Amino acid sequence: MDDRTTGLGRRVRQDDGRSILLMWLFAPLRFAYKLWFALIFWVSLAFLYPLFKLWLRHPRHFRKAFRLKRVWGQVLQWGGLFPQRVRFRAPLPAPPYIVISNHSSYIDIVQMFNLVPDYFLMMGKYELKRWPLFRMFFKDMDIAVDRTSRVGSAKAFRRAAAALDAGASIIMFPEGTIPYDVPRMKPFKDGAFRLAIEKQVPIVPVTFTNHWRLFGDPEDLLSRGHPGISRAIVHPPLPTAGLSESDLVDLRRRAFEVIQGPLLADEA
Asked: Could you tell me the sign of the dihedral formed by the alpha carbons of 239, 209, 45, 134, in that order?
């Protein structure tokens, strides 16, 4: 999408100079906030680690681990000072379903657990299996996707298909990564839509409208970072009943436009 044709693109260019000035002006506060959140994250995870470790040993305890993740999500949102406000444009469907959203910040993952009450598995990048402590979730329960390997990627989607068959919902970020120029979105990959059509389950689009403002790259201590209200919009589900592979491109386009809509409206 051409910057010259979108209000979002115009705003990104106009704000470049101001953003640089504000970055340095508020650098000490951002640095302190990032350190505070890192402390909350790792201390709370270390405290909950024994229970997670116990319940992740066998699939029959995965739902207990999921409920504990939701407790942890509450700890992180209130400890991180970004309480969530959600606007439901339609209620969530009966599970199983696939939730997709824009991916503009690592707090997207945290807030998914505060937004979706039904049992779900998270699909994430393979690199998450290398994070200390955190990797235990992607060892057996959640699903790590190795996009550098066709075999590994196919295996991950077979696991996701089996989870849907068993009644679990799936959370996916179809951009595959956080874009460099957030809040603009990267093109969506096909995986979520192919899976939804194959299993004939609805797709629930979600827009996180301001996460990119609240929390930037955690490895960059001078990137955006401050307390604030985390805002999300849950859009009406996109049904897939009766759709086939030939409908994939249109389904992907509609989902992209639905999620992007509030971002464009906010920046118009």
From this structure: positive
